[in-house]
Amino acid sequence: MPHPSRTAQEIATQPGDWRTAAALAATGPAGLPRRGERVAVVGCGTSWFVAQAYAALRESGGHGETDAFAASEFPRARRYDRVLAITRSGTTTEVLRLLEGTDLPTTAVTACTDQPVAAAAGHLVDLGFADERSVVQTRFATTVLALLRAHLEQEEALPAGVRTVAEAAADAESAVAWQVPDELVALEQISFLGAGWTNGLAQEAGLKMREAALAWTEAYPAMEYRHGPVSITAPGRAAWMLGELPAGLAAEVAAVGGRLVADSGPGGLDPLADLVRVHRLAVALAAHRGLDPDAPRNLTRSIVLG
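^ that's the sequence the OP posted. Answer follows.
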């Protein structure tokens, strides 16, 4: 049996990483958003999609107005009580430029506290235990969201119907053990769908499949699926819902001959744990196509601009 890729090994640590993050949240790390603060959450790539998920969770839970931006698109004329930056490497150029160029209070969540972000941010939250050697992010990103989600639990601001991080970690155990079906590996195309906080997860799912396996994937809010994206669904292609499936969507997918994957939401997996299954599928598809998920095409671990 071939040795698991580094990416696959890191994917498998996520349940434990989330529990560690929840324990960290319970200590009240300095710099995390306080109830009522108007917060901008920024990042690049995967970190931007995590920012989107957290922003929707925080605002819908009543903790405070929260916007998410790609760091390069931050509206500098707006006033916020805090900028929360997510950067695994601590070296991402757009994030550093934003932190260094704003007079707003700033906090950075990073895996590398010995990098330039340490001098650029007002507060640091250290997630070094979830750092990765892989280029393609998996465990750091989900652990950031676990930390921020657990912090909302501590603040009694978790939206109704969203499970605790402990429950999500238990679901992630089964996701790590999940055997990827051959019929999913054989799919030509997948449209990932989300709603509310899982929109960010859907975007991240699509990105992960593209990065690791060069797959044809797209991502949309679930209710937007009917407004165009359904046109590409057909036999051999799928719609994958992260979270609760909207009424009528299953029939829409079936009518055009597509496959529906809808195993998260009420009565199913926590959507964050379902993202772990997407990680597993991305690695399996890469292997099927003769690709190395540890060496994705055209990518590096951190984007540092000249």
